[in-house]
Amino acid sequence: MSTSLFQLSLLFLCLAIHALGQAPKKRFEYKLSFKGPHLVQRDNTVPFWEYFGDALAGDEGIRITPSLRSKKGSVWSKNKLEGSGWMIEAGLRVTGRGRIGADGMHNNPYIMGVVNNGQVSYDHQSDGSNQHIGGCLRDFRNKPYPVRVLIEYYNQMLTVRVNNGLTNNANEYEICFSASNVVLPSSGYIGISAATGGLADDHDALYLLTHTLLDPTAHTAQISDAERAKFDQEFKQYQDELDKAKQQINVVFATYQFQGQNEKELRQIFDGQNVIHQELRDMGRKVDELMGRQEMVISRLNSLPAGQQLGGQQQPQVAAQVPQGGGQINLQGTIQRHEVDRVINNQNSLLQQLGELK
Asked: Does the keyword Transmembrane helix apply (predicted)?
């Protein structure tokens, strides 16, 4: 009898150890998550989320605050997180020019956990040093990759792990802090907030993924056919809206590419025509100068009397001695009228050709 009791107790002990060693079951909560690309819709909304203050949603993420002084913003889920255990993974980027950053996601640079029931005001003077349940010093500003934060709450144990943003390895985390006996409500909203004071950084939330953690030994509750059909219809509706938005984006992008190619070709044609137009203007100017010179030459030739050289100077007389006593013969070097007419005709012909060229 005692042997049977011992074996039964040992069996219960083994089952208990096995249950404690099992990891909780994870269930993805898509209504409590967001991730790019194509994050923002055509009406500048993010499905299942709302952003406030100076926050601005973009295609790749949500900018909680810009790098301007005295700005604050936040983003909150529209649906509540229901469950006593959960895990949240967030990809964050904090960038700025100074060596120290802004407020909110900045504590020189310190990451901490603070439990608040909504009645406690955060102590900005001490940066919450007297209010936190744990924390770690991590430089999360101006990193080459997004800084990832993994927050897990299960069996009243809160654990925070951080990836330093120096590597893109999705599984490389360092423990920041772990606190036990942390009592949190089983229902609540999820949010990210940030603020800038005298110093300013860009605070970007690139993605947030939420999983609820379930007891691995508990039987999963079966949903009714009506609830399953409702969930399937909601998922199909959301998928259809997403596919429609993607198609519209693709059409707009294709139209933009087509218009951009056409504009590029028109610009090249326009630039080529401008070059040709400029060359023609230069050629016309040179032809005008040449025609002016030709007209001046023709005018001078027409006004030149027979027996006179160009330029209005009288030709010098050349005397030649005849060997056999006939006296002197005066040879006058003059330009004849028919030679002047020939030059004028040539100039007129050239002038006509230049006029036709112009």
From this structure: yes
